């Protein structure tokens, strides 16, 4: 055989052998879960509870890494730019794709750079006030805000995070003016409300509910349609007199755009199985997190609906973050 034909035959044989080789079975190594908020946040808690169970099922460790800051955008950007190979996922609230693209003037990623994988759990925000504030009910807060517009302030876990939007949704509807004091996460905000540095806070229920249950903070209302498991005496916003109010949020798992559908589907299935385990459900609910997984297409549809809802709120209150 002529030399060039021998070379061609060798190339064809090598190509055939390469295609005959089975693809690497996923997962073949550790999987990284980037949490977009600090340790102790609802997402961090949910990720760590679920990671152990999913890791056992996949026979690979799920390593949780906190990358907080900028309302979750730092962690989201890191995952959006990561290889779409199934070894990097983002744990973040749904606001990363439903709210942040509408309020941040400069955003280094687009909502569709992240593929929704599964909802880990629903969670609420809780409006709480310190003992020193003298405020015990939502009606008292409203009356005080009307009496001295702009004199009251409230803490949240940051610009554009669920607590901020939940409070602004209430304030815009009630026509009230209360100063927003953003923190880097719900935990430091809670500490300053406890210390009386800020009279009130609209903060993640899993973080503040234990203090309400212990009598260290007063719970005025929760943002969703269900009361807190940890502080069941605190009414919902609707029960406290705000008709039609619902600000339920979800802790989500996202993958970089382009992650193979089969990997997204497998991770969805394994997380759903983990969330069905009694010990996992018990741990989540003990932290005021309600596990409600659904298929990726249903999750994506719900995110589109929530994005439309919150875009209307953002436009109404003209909320923009630099």
UniProtKB/TrEMBL annotation:
Answer whether the UniProt record assigns the keyword Signal to this protein: yes
The stretch of residues making up the signal peptide is 1-20
Keyword Signal on entry? yes
Keyword list (alphabetical) reads: Signal
Q: Which family does it belong to?
A: Belongs to the UPF0065 (bug) family.
Q: List the InterPro entries.
A: BUG (IPR005064), Bug_dom1 (IPR042100)
* Taxonomy of the source species: Bacteria, Pseudomonadati, Pseudomonadota, Betaproteobacteria, Burkholderiales
Its protein name is: Tripartite tricarboxylate transporter substrate binding protein
Q: Which residues form a coiled coil?
A: none
């Amino acid at each position: 055989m002529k030399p060039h034909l021998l070379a061609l035959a060798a190339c064809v044989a090598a190509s055939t052998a390469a295609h005959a080789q089975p693809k690497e079975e996923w997962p073949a190594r550790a999987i990284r879960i980037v949490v977009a908020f600090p340790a102790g946040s609802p997402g961090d808690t949910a990720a760590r509870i679920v990671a152990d169970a999913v890791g056992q099922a996949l026979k690979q460790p799920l390593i949780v890494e906190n990358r907080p800051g900028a309302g979750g955008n730092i962690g989201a950007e890191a995952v959006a730019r990561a290889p779409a190979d199934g070894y990097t996922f983002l744990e973040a609230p749904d606001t990363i794709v439903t709210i942040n693209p509408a309020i941040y003037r400069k955003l280094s990623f687009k909502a569709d750079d992240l593929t929704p994988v599964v909802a880990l759990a629903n969670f609420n925000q809780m409006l709480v006030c310190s003992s020193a504030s003298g405020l015990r009910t939502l009606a008292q807060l409203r009356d005080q805000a009307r009496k001295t517009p702009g004199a009251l302030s409230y803490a949240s876990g940051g610009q554009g995070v669920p607590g901020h939007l939940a409070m602004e949704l209430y304030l815009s509807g009630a026509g009230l003016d209360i100063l927003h004091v953003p923190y880097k996460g719900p935990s430091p905000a809670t500490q300053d409300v406890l210390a009386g540095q800020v009279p009130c806070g609209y903060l993640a229920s899993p973080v503040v509910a234990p203090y309400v249950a212990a009598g260290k903070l007063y719970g005025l209302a929760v943002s969703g349609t269900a009361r807190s498991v940890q502080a069941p005496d605190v009414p919902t916003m609707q029960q406290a007199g705000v008709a039609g109010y619902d600000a339920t949020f979800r802790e989500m798992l996202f993958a970089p755009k382009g992650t193979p559908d089969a990997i997204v589907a497998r991770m969805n299935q394994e997380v759903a199985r983990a969330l069905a385990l009694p010990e996992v459900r018990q741990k989540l609910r003990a932290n005021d997190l309600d596990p409600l997984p659904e298929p990726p297409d249903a999750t994506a549809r719900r995110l589109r609906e929530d994005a439309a809802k919150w875009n209307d709120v953002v436009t109404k209150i003209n909320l923009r973050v630099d």
